[in-house]
Amino acid sequence: MVQNRTLRRLDQAQLDQAVRKHEMFRNARVGGARANLSFCDLSGLDLSGRDLAHADFVGASLRGADLSGARLDCASFFVADLRQANFDGASLIKADLRGACLRGAILVGANLFEADLRDGSLAEKDRSGHLHMVQIESSPADADGADLSGANLTNARMSGIMAVHTDFSDAVMRGCKLVRATMRGANFTGSNLEGADLSGADLRGACLRGAVLTGATMVMADLTDADVEEALTDKPVGRVVAELGRSLEDLLSDHMTWVGSSGAQGAMLDLSGFDLRHAPSLAHMCLTMLRAAGATLYGLDLSGVQLQAAVLDRADLRGAKLTDGDLRGISLRNAKLNNADLRNVNLRPLVFDEQRSRPADLSGAKLRYADLSGACLRSVNLGNADLSFANLRGCDLARTDLTGAKLFGAKLERRALNEGVILDGVAGLKT
């Protein structure tokens, strides 16, 4: 037997009081109490930026509520109504979202690491001890039309979810469980599904253009009319390292000799068009003036690398780690750097003498959700680059050329744009 459950309506003042006590509870202060908001009607209320980790929202209605930037780790949203709720940038690590209705919800850039979004239904005992199903006007595990672009869904459990026409573009979904999920017409453009389990998933008409599918299990998945153009799979992209004729270690040694001798000895290394995903670590290597146009370096550890004056136009560096790298004068035109770790990289011009210098060129590069915090981007050419949702906090942007660049949702300090930055035709910059 199915019974409807009446929700208790709270106003903003009552909710604020419960949240304050919960935050006191989280900080082990006297008078604190864990927020029990189960079966409460919180629709349209404001919880943005609040700490509600481990709170109880079982069966609650948060339809149209603002939870942007909120900390909701390990919170329980079991069979909750989350339609049109705003979780923009919220942290939902290990949250219980089983049976929750996320139709039309906004989860752009949200962190759902190891969250549980599987089907779920609620049962209660009546006074006679009999179980009955509880109906809370929502569809189990329903994420139809939700916006999860750029969300972190690593190891999330989403088997059986309904996610028709849902936006997963640029989402990180490594190891995600999507067994028998219904995702017809969903948008996975540029998403990372490395190691995901899509067995029996309904992906008819889905867009997987440019998605990462390495190590993904797709047994019995229905890809009828799906767009998988430029998807990165286990199949090599271009040439493989074995075709070099010699070991990569020996070729790198020759290249370093060539650099150290100003070209008198050794030989310059050209890896253009090669798939280097299974190459040895290149971290802290001297790759000055390397040529690797169109190469695939997805997910590689290149931290501390020296790539001064290197040419990596059109290279695939999505998810690569380039922290603390010396990239002065590099050419990365039209390169893919989505979700790359570029913290503290040096991209200032490479100075040859008082008269000659070479600025870094990242024109047309895709840097969506890349982390560039603390990087030196002085005088870099970022014309027509896509920096949407990138982290640019603490960057040196003096005289940087951002002509025609996209900065939708980018994180940056406005004062950094006061030192001669070229902003002609920039899109998405908040005024």
Automatic annotation (TrEMBL):
Domain of life: Bacteria
PANTHER family: BTB_POZ DOMAIN-CONTAINING PROTEIN KCTD9
One family name in Pfam for this protein: Pentapeptide
Record protein name field: Pentapeptide repeat-containing protein
InterPro entries hit by this protein: 5peptide_repeat, Pentapeptide-BTB/POZ_domain
High-level lineage: Bacteria, Pseudomonadati, Pseudomonadota, Alphaproteobacteria, Rhodospirillales
Gene3D superfamilies registered for this protein in UniProt: E3 ubiquitin-protein ligase SopA
